Structure formats: C-alpha cells, structure tokens
C-alpha cells in the first residue's frame, strides 16, 4: 500500500481514453487542433487572456517559467525547501544559464512578504551582487500548505513594488484550488502571478503539464526555448489531449478533491502528531523509527522525512480501504 | 493524403496496448521494472553491454549524447544539412553549453572521412580555435541515404585516430537497419559509434526515444543531465513501455520495412526525377511548381524542399491505396 | 624584424606615462574619475550620447556586445573568416550562452547586404530554426579591408529593416577611420551601428579596449555581465588611463596613420602580388614557399596564411628602416 | 585617509618598473619568455610541479578554478559569506555553466570539516539533487581570519575522502602566509589544495593574479577556457612581469607583512571592540553609528559592515602616520 507520492499514480481512465481518441494522423508539434485550442481553453478557465504551453514535466514547466522571468545574471527568491532548489537537479540553473536561487524562510515552506524582503533588502543594487529578478512560490507547498489569494496577493504586491516577476509552482495547484474553493484566477493573476506551472501529472495525467503565462507575450520567447530544450514533441496532440481531458467536466478538481479528502482522513487520525496543518494531499507526522517500522510492517510504504517525521501522500486513486486501514494504524500507534 | 513527414503518424496499436498495460501503480522515475530492464534488453539487441536511457524527443537524445561527447569549449563536426544544425532550435548549443558545430559537406547529407578531415585538418591545435571533440552523423540521413557498416567504420576509424567521439542520430535508425539487413551492432558500436539516438517516435511510438551509450560509463553523468534538463518523467514506465513494445517481435523493423517499401514504390514511379537514391522512407524528387501544384490538386500534401524539389515521406501506416495513387500521379506528371 | 601582428607591439610612451600618472590611490572598480569620465569623453568624440565600458581584451568587448544584442537562443550573422568565428576560442558562444554564428561570404571578409540576406532569407521564422538577432562586421576587416560609411549604412539599413542589432568589431577601428578620413560617427551610429568594440591594444595601448554602446541603455545590463565575466578590474583607473591617453591629441589616429603608411609602402612594393587592396595596416600577398623562405632568410618574420599567401602586419612603431628593407626585399622576389 | 579596502591601493614601484622593463616587442599571448617562465618559477616557490596561468582579476582566477573542479551539473561548498557567493556577480555560475553554491557556516568565514559535512551529508546521491564536487575556502578569509596548515589539511582530508576538489581563494594569500610563517606549500598542496587563486592585485600589483594548479593537467583545459572567457591578453608579458616583480626578493611577503603590521596596530587599539581576531590585514570592530561618524569626522573612510560593525583594511602602502592617527582615534572612542 503505497503512500510514497502522488507522482507515480496510474493515469486516469478518461485521460487514457483521450489518448486513444487522439490516435489519428494530425499536424506535427503544436500545430494540431488540440494544442492550438489550449490558449482559448485556459483563457476561459482563468477569465483572462493567457498563453498555455504544454511540457512533459513539472521541472520543465518551472524552469521555462523562471527563464522567462529572470536573466542569466539575475536571481530568484524561493523557499529554502522549494522543489526548484532541492529536487530538480540544478535545472533552474541550466534553463536560466546560471541564475542564482536566493533561499528564504517560512513555516511549511510558505514565504511571506517579510521573509522575502529579508532576503532582498540585504542585497544592495551593485554589480558585485546578483540582483533578484523574480520570486517563486509553490502552491500547494512542498509541505502541503496552501497560500490563500490574500497571501499570494501580498507577495504579488511586493513583487510588483520591487519590479520582480512572480512564478507559482503549481505541481499541486489543483489540490490548492480544491481546498481554497476559489477561482483559479483569484490565486494567480488576480494576485499578481505572472507564470503558473499548472500540474496534471500528479493528479491523473500521464506526461503533460501546462506552463501558463498571464502576460501572453512572455510565451513568445518561451516557444523558442521550449524547442531549444528538446521539449517540443512532434506528436504534441497526445500532450494536449491529456490536459483537455483533465479539464473536461472539472476532472482536475474532482481528482484533487478525492486526494485531499483521503489526506484529511489521515490527518484526523494523526491528530497531535501532525507537523503541518493538512491543507492538500500531503500528511507529515511525527513518528519514531519504531512507529514507522510498525506501519511498514502492516504493509504501508512512505518516505522518512526529517528525523522523527514521515510523509504520507494520497493520490486521486488512493483506495478507500487502504486509507482507512492506514488511518486506523496511525491511531493505534 | 499526407506525405509531409513520418513524425506525426499515429501510434501503433501495440504501443497503445502497452501503455494500457503499464497503467498500474509502479515506482516513480526510472525505478520501475520496465525502465530498469532497458539496459539488458538493449544489450541483448546490440550484443554488447550498453546503457539505455529513455527520453521523450529525438532532439533531447541527440543533445544529451553530444553533451556527453563534447565539452562546452569544444566542437562537433556534422553535415551542413544535419538536423542538429538546422532543425533543433539551437538545442545542441544549449545542452553542450555553447559547443560549436563545424559544418562539413557530402552528397545526400552523408559525411565521409575525407569531408570530415577537410574540416578538422584546417583547425590548428591552438587555444584560439575551438577544437573538434566529436563527430555526429545521421543514419538514415536527412535525405534518406543510408550509411553502410563499412562507411560508418571508416568514419569511426577517423574518429578514433583523432580522439573524437562518434554520435549517430538514428531518428530513422530502424529504416536504415531495415535497408541494410545487418545487425544493429554492425552499423553502430562495431563501427566505432559511441552513442546512438535510437528513434521510435517516427516509427510508431508516441513519445519515447532511447539514448544508447556503447560505453556505459558515459551514461553515469548523463543521468544527472537528463534530470537537469527536465526530462526525467515521474511516470517513466510509460516511456519504457513504448520502447519495449516497439522492440517486441521486431515491431520496429516491421514498421520500418513497411515505410521503406512504400517509399520504394514512390521511387520507382519517380525514376529520373529522383534527387537522391531512395534507401529509406524519404523520397526527394524534382518537380516544377506547376507539377507540385498538380499533385496537391489531387489531394497530396508534402514539403517543398529546395527550389524545384519536393519531399515525400512515408510512414509505418502509409495507406497502400494512397501510396499507389501518389505513385500513379507522379508517373503522370 | 617582426611583421607577425600588431597585437604584440610595445606600449606607446604616452600610455606608459599615463599609467604612471594614474598611480595614486583612487576609488576602486570604475568609480574613479578617469573611468567615470569615459562616457562624456566618448560622447564628445562620437557626437552623440554613448556609454563606454573598458574591458581588457577585444574578445571581451566583442562578446559582451554580442550578448547585449542577441539572446541565448538567437543567432549572429558574421563573415566566415570573422575573428569572432575563428579566433576567439568559442567566446561568443560562452558569453551569449550558446547563440549560433551564421557564416556569410564576401571578398576580403566584407559582408554586403546581399550576402547577409542570402543567409537570413534562408531561415524561416520557425521555432525549429535559430533566428538571427544580430549582425557583426569587422572594420577594418580581418583582411585589412575597410567598410565605407555608405557600405556600413547599407548593412545598417538591412539590420533595422529586419530588426537585427549591428555590432562592429573595431579591433582596428582606428586604422579604418584613419583611412576613411571620416568622423568616427559617420561609420558607426550614423550608419546604424549599435555597439562598437573600439580597439586600442593593437594601436599602442597595453591592455584596454572600449565597448561603446550607441544606445546607452544597452550598457545597463552589460555592467552586470562585465562583472559576471570576471572583467571588472578593482584598479580600473589603469584601464581608463590608457584609453584617455590614446584619445588625447588624437594619438589613436596618429598611431593608426603611421601603421597604415608603413603598410602602404609594403603594398606599393608588392604590386600585383597583393591578394587584397591594402586599406589599413595588413598586407596579404602571394608568395611561393621559396619566396617566403627567402624573406625569412633576410630576417623577416610573418604568418603563412593560405597556401601561397603570406600576411605582413605593420604597427604604430614599425621601424622605417625595417619596413623599407622589407619593401625592397619584396620587390626583389 | 582611506581604509576602505586594499583593492584600490597604488601599484608598487617595483611593479611599475617591471612594466617599463617589459615594454619591448615580444611574442603575443603567453608565448613570451616571462609568461613561459611562470610554471618553473611557481614550481620552485611551491616545491612541486605546478601550472600557473595569469589572469587579470581574482574573480577570473576563482571561477576558472571552480570550472576546472566542478561540472555544470555539480555543486561547490563554500562559506555563506564567501566572496564567490556574495561579491562576484554570479561569475561562478557563469564560468561553471550553472553549478550551485552550497552555503556552509563557520565563525569568521572559516569552514571546518564538520560544517562542510553538515552540508554534504544532507545531500543524498540521487539525480534529483545537485551533487557536491568541490569545496572552496578563502585564506585569509573575508573576515581576515587565517586557516593554519592543519586546518586546511583537515578539510583537504575530507575533500579527498569524499572525492571533492579543493580550491583556495587566495586573494589575500600573501597576508595569510606572512602571518603563518609557513611555506606556501604547507598551506596548499601539502594540505590537499588542488587549485589556488594567488592574489597580487590587493598586494601591490596592477592587474595580475595567478591561477595555480597543483595538478598541472588541470591547466590543460583551463587554457582553452581562459581564452574562451576573453581573458587571454595579447600582451600577456605585462601580466607576467607584474607577477615576477612581486615574487622577486619576496616582495609579496614584504608587502603583506607591512599591511598585516598596520592592521595589528589598529587591532591593539581596538581591543575588546574586535569582532574577529585580526590575523591578516582586515580589522572588524564594533562601533555605534555615532562612533563611526566620529571617525569619519576625523577624515577616516571605511565600510559600514553589519549593523554596529565597521571594517578597516590596511594595504602595503598604508601610511604609518595615518594608521597611528586612526589607532589613536579608535582608542579615544
């Protein structure tokens, strides 16, 4: 019973069906009707003109976004525990040609205007210092915390005041929106976000993520960069089809709600053991090595996180019985 | 009736079936059984120990290979009409951090030891000059020509003598091997090739290519680079599944043979119009603008190539009746 | 008697004196009065507002200019024999993060609007192709030819029409202006040049070149890039002092005139042997290996260029008697 | 009376004399006798075979060293307050093509095996994580502390055990050696250092630093990289001449001793105000804004460092009377 991550879950049947439906001859690259329809479809979803480019991985989405917002000689403020800092093998540095990540603090991997200002206020505007050009936040965060529209707007206000771009890593954007109950617009461009990595793979897709630019002109250069990075699939329609299937009938929200609900069950069982409030589909809880071993002995797989902490992640398809069994086992610790 | 390219053809049913079969929970990234089995499977195919990494595009395969063979301050000899020079949006320069492509000549986009030596002999070993570190050839070439094992071996000998790595862009490797009737080994490592971009997408896959290193140690660094380029899929099993399906029962060769046979039909009809011998699945023929228009009027789509030339490409699924109709139409020009 | 190159000539006594005069405590980097005065001094020379940054080498000047005019995913049109292509060890690719050099033709290493258009017209605007973003010309060229203001303006017009930046490698700019007898403005910004590498080292300085931007805003980012490239000297006043000494009393033009005059003497002696008209301080002439050996036997050092060609370069300090002796020796061949 | 930094001090008369003596025609680049003699001269100084390359700035020396020790996808452990992290405008990322700096802690900007291990032990060997490939330490440090041979050897032992390269930023190496009274070997290669940035500019030179490789083969690639970075001066003899003048008769040590002695005078006056022990030529002391203002009112210039701290730096030429006056003024605070 795997609670390692949502990143290896099976593909949702509707996505598989969409792939099958796309399996006819069509124009190459992103010239097919599905790919060409993404801008309009996402513009409708976000209630503003956006440009939406498919890419195969979240790392690719994040790093193309960062490259659009930060020059090679610039820097990007992110949380010390951000995925772009710790889990992308230096891809941000590769795509930006060596921009520097400035590490800020905040509980639950959430930045605040104050923690960002702490970092950038310490950097004089001087050629000897790498200058900040962008901020990157993750929603839901690497610890399953969710930024509210107001929280994002506060950061967006700081970004605008300092002339910085604002990127949102939305590998679990669906989980955040499902929790917030707000419009996708409220927590992105209305709050000052310039570019969103809109994740689908962790939420039921096979290999398609979207990079959404709320200033569509930013996409112009990125289309060249996407090709230059070897990311322009010749059969792009199979990526677009995945995205469209996820958006149809709000499958993306339904899947996220399912995963979030399962995590809530585990959170309820964990009670005082919780390290962070559970606001999405990740549950971090305190467990001694013996307790972790006891859970594993019952057949549950998961990550050991920091010392004395374990991470449990639910997915769109986490079986109800397995979740119930795990909740029970946690209660019995 | 599309003869634009093989790069947008539908996905073969056996590949679709393999994707469906892979649609269960498994380990993330390349930790799944399918991905883990690639080295052994490809080692068996090539009759030597190889390391095989899946990537989603041919550009990614080519450029990771080049980065493994050439440092940022080095250069790569390729044909003036090579895909890496003209059709990858600068991806070789991105992945290698700015290596230079040295352009050599040769009929049908085929290099020879002499045409390569012309280029490298003109470069003194001097810090002012970018030094060649690798050679890249394409088999089958961008004009549908095929290098024989002996021809590759002659280039491989030069590469070894000069201390250069040798990369083969095999976007249409299957078509070449189908024509040659040789073992995959004969035209690669036995002939001095260090790294092969083994293409499947043009031949019936959806989004999976293989980067095969005949010196497995070269893969060690490349695994980091693959992640750093945003190419490490979290659900890698769906890439490995495509490759394995293509290899099962020699589907890759069957598909290539089918495409080649269709191209041969067109070649027979084209006769003296042919610009290059047809040795794979691409047919370049002389046609005036009026003649090209006449073909289009009959419903055939294709690329205008150089002035007075058109390019017709067949795929694994090119319908027999459409090919016959096109052959007839060519004959009537 | 050395006629290898002007790049190793001694430093002019007035430059040495200026270094001695600068040898007092002053503000670091480019905060000293000499460095701070460069913009005004060069603006006066060019009759328009410019930004002028010292750098230690011509390669650094060229490559910072190219990086300002071309993004990493773009390309730069230059002559096939341009210094940036052949003699800078890949520095353009390093500074631009992998931009591609497109090689155009032209006699005497001179580009024309037609030869440039031949290159760029062949590149469709398509993400698969690296797009041209800039043109780089050398004045005087690598073969000692000089672009007139009209010739530059014709290229400048093309650059503007196509939205391309225009860079002039002026390693021997002084020699060109000395020959043309025009204002520095006429052959640069008035003709559409955006950035000039204004060379002093080959003309009597020790280690200072200037990068002059005719759109001063381009310098803003370049100041960061200059530091990032390790080129921001802490004792920058010794670079500024060299430049100012070269500009005082038109020393730069006097030195260039002297070198040009010496080359003209050699050209007169060479007569029909000349490969290119001699318009600056380089003389290319046809000489058999035996003839070259005969000159060397008399104590003259120089480069063998292409087969059957030798290159002779005069400098600001070429001794009159040595030049006369060489002219005589050429006449006796 | 300037105590801002040693980086803008005048050039020592013996260096100026050496420049004048070098002012004759010689071979270009590093082909002159002075440049060619550096390897032997430095090998003698260090008592082992080294390769020594001149470069014009400390940033260039540091970053070429880092590029030799760390691949683009790797990382370098340095102190949180290291010059390469805070004061080089992202040059390490530029030269290494995007390697990541890992920030470690330690009093006085000194790393210890333990503080380094804290950083690298937290990084699993996994393609998702940038892997450490090198360690960089500064001696004397950014706070004027000195690593002893034993301290360096302890770090060198860790580096060797973990397969990491070890770089020493020796912008003030002379000051450290002057304090230690050891051989240059004892604190470098004998202690496991692979590459040293041997600084001269802060110590009386004009524009020459040395990059010393204790594994000479590392220099082979670096020679290409130096050219590629636009750092290969055509008149390199003027750089070599500076270095040789600094080494003659131990001028480098005499100058450093002079600067250190002046700093010791200030340290004695500062007493309990000292933030760090004064072991080289930098003095950090606690001073309220009013106290700092009082010093400035007496004509002393210096940096405000952290809140309530000021930095005073002495140079080879700090006038005895000014230092005495400053010491007195500090005593009177």
UniProtKB/TrEMBL annotation, chains A, B, C, D:
Keywords: Lyase, Pyridoxal phosphate. Pfam families: Beta_elim_lyase. One of its GO terms (molecular function) is lyase activity. One of its GO terms (biological process) is amino acid metabolic process. Gene3D superfamilies: Aspartate Aminotransferase, domain 1, Type I PLP-dependent aspartate aminotransferase-like (Major domain). Its cofactor is pyridoxal 5'-phosphate. Residues 3-286 form the Aromatic amino acid beta-eliminating lyase/threonine aldolase domain. The keyword Lyase applies. Homotetramer. Belongs to the threonine aldolase family. This is Beta-eliminating lyase-related protein. It comes from Sphingomonas liriopis. The lineage of its organism: Bacteria, Pseudomonadati, Pseudomonadota, Alphaproteobacteria, Sphingomonadales.
